[in-house]
Amino acid sequence: MKTPPDTLQRALGEAFSVFEEAVRKSEPRLRPEEIGVVVFLGGGIVRAAGLPGVKYEELVVVGDGVPGLAFALDPHEVGIVLLEDAPSAKAGSTVRRTGREVDVPVGESLLGRVVDPLGRPLDGGEPVRGVQRFPMERAAPAIMDRDPVTVPLQTGLKVVDALIPIGRGQRELILGDRQTGKTAIAVDAVINQRGKDVVCIYCAVGQRASSVAKVIDDLRRRDALAYSTVVVTEGNDPPGMQYLAPYAATAMGEYFMEHGRDVLVIYDDLTQHARAYREISLLLRRPPGREAYPGDVFYIHSRLLERATHLSRDRGGGSLTALPIVETQAQQLSAYIPTNLISITDGQIYLSPTLFRKGVLPAVDVGRSVSRVGGKTQLPAYRAVAGDLRLSYSQFEELESFSRFGTRLDEETRKTLEHGRRVREVFKQKQYDPIPADEQIAVLLAAVEGVFDDLAVDAVADSERLIREALRNRHESVMRKMVSGDKLQDEERRELLAAIRETLSSKNGA
């Protein structure tokens, strides 16, 4: 007898339900998994066949657990950037998807630590246990979520704080030739944040191990490592790790920014970052453009630096200040990467090798340096004292260069040159010796008013130190007012000048 169709269909349905329930209860549970195969490996790059559903910048695992980043999604293969050396991987090795993007641990536990871009410790300490994990690539805050940059971020350097002020939430580029003191300015800025409740993150991209070790030691000896995190990639690390380092450092800083804290992030340096990205792109067969850089090298830096901002009060009011460093060659500011970064940032501090060789340290070229936020982030006392100092100092430098061709100078020109030389002497400053804002303002006031003009150039440094010590001990009320945000009144200005002249006269009398 023939079985009715509906009875057969019902029986098949029941059998399928039993089978489905058995599969559901089985351990381990059966899950589909995409597996690709390595077809090429070399230079920190893998090309793999398969993985049809992989996403851009998804974390994948190559061979025996080597992490990689899906970077090129071509029709017939996937370009993967390795984040570690893979000695056991070879053509034919498997590549597995993880289904998640590259992230990094964030939180207070990172303070005082030295880590790699994946958050793994490099200081021999315990593994970092962050309160949560942030993806390295995050969208920049919307325009309506930002507030103007108005609060100063003091570097402790007179020439920077007076003439090229930096605000919390600003992006200020530091650029110059090799060995001109770019890292020194950044490290001084970190040291000057001690006691100011600013979290600092120093990101070394492709640097020599000895250079990074020196920076870490300098921070530790000056009690600056306690509020800092150091993210390190060395020159022999895979280019993928060097590429990720700035994004990892920014994600670590964004955690504190979103909790209402102020953060300073230093990228040392983005020239190495661009070179690592160029190496990755050429190995992945992307078309080279100017200086062999790929066409989107501007985009990798713009989307990084756009994340630096001052959040609105509704978002907690935190800020992230970026100090990217870039290296020039033979003082060529018009090279590809420097011009890209100059156009992205809110100003630049240019360090001149000529000034460096002359011993004018820090070797800041005032004429080529600028802060596009400007005096909005300065204390009112700074503006009252050094408002016209930038223009007059630039004029002095021009006049000095032209005076070399003349044999006779009139009296007024001679006085202008002598005054400018003493102002330049005031701007000189030793490394790791940041000066508080109130003492800076007092010394700058003395320089602007010509107090040092009757002294020998070699005596300016000792006189400056004497003035700082005297005012710190005897005129605390006026010094406190200068950093309180109040405008320096004419009477207080006269009182301060009288105290400065009295200090110097007592020194000369002694």
Question: What would your notes on this structure say?
Answer:
The strands form 3 sheets. This protein has an 8-stranded mixed sheet with strand order 8-12-11-13-14-10-15-16, sandwiched between helices. Strands 1-2-5-4-3-6 form a 6-stranded antiparallel barrel. It has helices at 5-25, 158-163, 182-191, 209-221, 239-258, 270-283, 297-305, 336-344, 353-358, 380-386, 389-403, 411-427, 437-448, 460-474, 476-482, 490-509, and strands at residues 35-42, 45-49, 58-62, 66-73, 78-82, 94-101, 103-106, 114-115, 132-135, 173-176, 198-207, 228-234, 262-268, 319-327, 347-351, 370-371. Helix 11 packs across helix 12 (411-427) and helix 14 crosses helix 16 (490-509). The longest helix is centred in the N-terminal third of the chain and has 21 residues, at 5-25. With 510 residues, it is of the alpha/beta class. The chain is built from 16 helices and 16 strands. 44% of the residues are buried. It starts with a helix and ends with a helix. The mean pLDDT is 90. The protein is 39% helix and 18% strand.
What descriptors fit this protein?
eight-stranded mixed sheet, six-stranded antiparallel β-barrel, 16 strands, 16 helices
Category by helix and strand content: alpha/beta
Rounded to the nearest angstrom, the distance between the terminal CA atoms is 129 Å
Strand content is: 15-25%
What about the largest sheet?
8 strands, mixed
Name the poorly predicted regions: none
Whole-angstrom Rg? 29 Å
Shape: elongated
